Amino acid sequence: TSRLKVLQSLPINLPKTFSSVNHIDVAFLYLLLGLFSAVLGSSMSLLFRLQLTYPVLLTSDLYNSMVTIHGLIMVFFAAIPTAIGFFANMLIPFHCNIPDLLFPRINALSFWLLPLSLTMLLFSLACAGWTMYPPLSRNSANIEYTIFSLHLAGVSSLVSSCNFMVTMISTRALS
């Protein structure tokens, strides 16, 4: 019960936030995912820099996997959700003077595809370098899972971008 009291005393109601479709709550979730991904990617960077100092920490395959996953996490799960997802969800409704985006459930769906995609990426352990250059990668199921994860993140980005564009075009002032 003490944990429940701590959760209830927070300024943000976390259980309600995770199930909400309100644009501010979804923006907060994008920010949390971006910060979590940035910490995760930075810790991977620290780990493989330690590997360069003490070459007994990681195997060569695990080192290459972490370099691959680090690059993809920092770009697709730290920078883009924070820059696009957070700021667009916060600013577009205020800019268009509307209470929420036109399709709030699609907005929430586009967010919830990202943690699924991030989980798939973390479990794929692909050895390809963050550029995914084909001659440097091995043809394995891990690469396919990584590519599918990136496609899922791309679908999330596409759905949210369409929602943002439809909201802006449909609610603009006719002048």
Your description of this structure?
The chain is mainly α and 175 residues long. The chain has helices at residues 2-9, 14-18, 23-53, 60-95, 104-124, 141-170. The model has no long low-confidence stretch (mean pLDDT 85).
Helix/strand structural class: mainly alpha
Number of DSSP E strands: 0
What proportion of the residues form beta strands (DSSP E)? under 5%
Q: Mean pLDDT across all residues, rounded?
A: 85
Question: Which overall shape is indicated by the principal axes computed on the Cα atoms?
Answer: globular
Low-confidence parts, pLDDT < 50 over ≥5 residues?
none
Tell me roughly what share of residues is in helical segments. over 70%
Number of helices: 6
Reported for the largest beta sheet, the result is: none
Distance between the termini: 57 Å
- Rounded to the nearest angstrom, the radius of gyration is 19 Å
Order of helices and strands: HHHHHH
What is the fold's blueprint, element by element?
Elements: H1 2-9, H2 14-18, H3 23-53, H4 60-95, H5 104-124, H6 141-170
Helix pairs in contact: 3-4, 3-5, 4-5, 4-6, 5-6
